């Protein structure tokens, strides 16, 4: 699409962002491997030996390319047994007891570090959304597709500046912050977002 080319980053920016992703992800893995191990044990104890630990879900990545996002499973295994995609709600009864805690402290997101290493995602960028929601939102929200000009991220400017989105109105408001990032992203902004995200996690704000 033409706007992907228009917002394409320079080769030096692409290289610096990839190095930032690798370096930051390596540091995060060193400090979070024990938390991930504890999450695995907690999910196993609550759900039993037959239930999956990880949850894979198709998301839309850079330039609209789909990929398989990986998270720790925080919902019941029958959360979408009818196959219908649903927004997560504030007091979602599909979330398990372990899932509620790991969502609150963002541990459920840590397996996405593998997506970052693979190149599906960047550490910083717009949150990747599900294809069903993207298809609907692109029809209703002007310029929504512009957020796919960069790789989706584990953390992002919109996540810091707007509460967790759960409907089309929220998606339209968050898009303003995503587009600001698409237009202005650089090493300094990525570093600021990463530092502020740590503060959010420590004070446990904004998770659902």
- Assign the structural class, choosing from mainly alpha, mainly beta, alpha/beta, alpha+beta, or little secondary structure: mainly alpha
Judging from the principal axes of the Cα atoms, what is the shape?
Answer: globular
Beta-strand share of residues:
5-15%
The residue fraction in helices comes out at: 40-55%
Give me the side-by-side strand order of the main sheet: 1-2
N- and C-termini, Cα separation: 33 Å
The number of helical runs is 8
The residue-averaged pLDDT reads 87
Spans of at least 5 consecutive residues whose pLDDT stays below 50 are none
Assembly state (oligomeric):
single chain
Q: How does the major sheet shape up?
A: 2 strands, antiparallel
Outline of the structure:
The protein is mostly helical and 208 residues long. The protein has helices spanning 2-6, 11-47, 97-104, 112-118, 131-140, 157-161, 168-184, 187-203; strands at 54-60, 66-72, 122-124, 153-155.
Description of the structure:
The chain is mainly alpha-helical. Helix content is 51%, strand content 10%. The protein is built from eight helices and four strands. Helix 2 (11-47) runs antiparallel to helix 3. The longest helix has 37 residues, at 11-47. The two termini are 33 Å apart. The model has no long low-confidence stretch (mean pLDDT 87).
């Amino acid at each position: 699409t033409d706007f992907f080319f228009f917002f394409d980053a320079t080769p030096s920016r692409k290289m610096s962002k990839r190095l930032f992703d690798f370096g930051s992800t390596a540091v995060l893995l060193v400090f979070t491997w024990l938390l991930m191990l504890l999450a695995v044990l907690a999910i196993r104890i609550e759900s039993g030996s037959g239930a999956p630990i990880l949850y894979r879900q198709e998301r839309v990545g850079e330039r609209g390319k789909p990929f398989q996002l990986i998270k720790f499973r925080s919902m019941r295994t029958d959360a979408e047994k009818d196959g219908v995609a649903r927004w997560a709600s504030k007091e979602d009864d599909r979330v398990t007891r372990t899932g509620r805690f790991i969502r609150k402290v963002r541990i459920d997101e840590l397996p996405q570090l593998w997506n970052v290493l693979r190149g599906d995602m960047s550490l910083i960028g717009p949150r990747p959304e599900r294809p069903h929601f993207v298809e609907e939102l692109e029809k209703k929200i002007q310029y929504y597709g512009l957020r796919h000009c960069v790789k989706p991220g584990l953390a992002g400017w919109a996540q810091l500046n707007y509460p967790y989105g759960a409907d089309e109105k929220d998606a339209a408001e968050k898009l303003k912050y995503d587009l600001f990032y698409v237009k202005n992203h650089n090493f300094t902004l990525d570093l600021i977002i990463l530092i502020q995200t740590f503060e959010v996690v420590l004070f446990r704000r904004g998770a659902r």
